[in-house]
Amino acid sequence: MREVGEADxxxxxxxxxxxARLAGLRAEHGWxxxxxARRSGVSRSTLSRVERGEISPTxxxxxxxxxxxxxxxxxxxxxxxxxPTRLVRVADQTVWTDASTGFRRRSVSPPHAGLRAEVIExxxxxxxxxxxxxxxxxxxxxxxxxLEGRLRLTVHGATHDLExxxxxxFRLWGPSRFDCPGPTPARYALTLVLP
Length: 195
Known about the structure:
alpha+beta; Jelly Rolls; seven-stranded mixed beta sheet; four-stranded antiparallel beta sheet; 5 helices; globular
């Protein structure tokens, strides 16, 4: 598997390409760092450091940028990869890790032009939380299937406690929050379908 965002003190090739793509997206929109900071709620200095490849973005920060650019996180990450193929071997699946929470996100079926669905595998360590202020794409359809551990998912103000084998489907219009109460990590499959 190819790791993205590992906390080894040196940014990997995918992190560097991600930094360049984020800078390119801002340029495509004709926004200054100040404008992007205003739109995303992320400080100008943090955005600058991310775009220069000095730091690897967290899941929360990427979520905010994906919202501003109206892309799913998988789509953004796929834009820094080579042309996707039909068959994605496990060794070729991009795995991105949020160094601050330990959240690990595997792109099982990366987004592809002309196709609306993608599948990711998420692994949230015990005690970790990831919160998103808003969806990257309003109305994004999501199907979450919990494979291992326990997961508390809050969507549309309602909290759902999931056990292994449980599934939850919804369209995302507002904030969401993923909490792993433990004692073991929560591992889940998530299917995302663009509206």
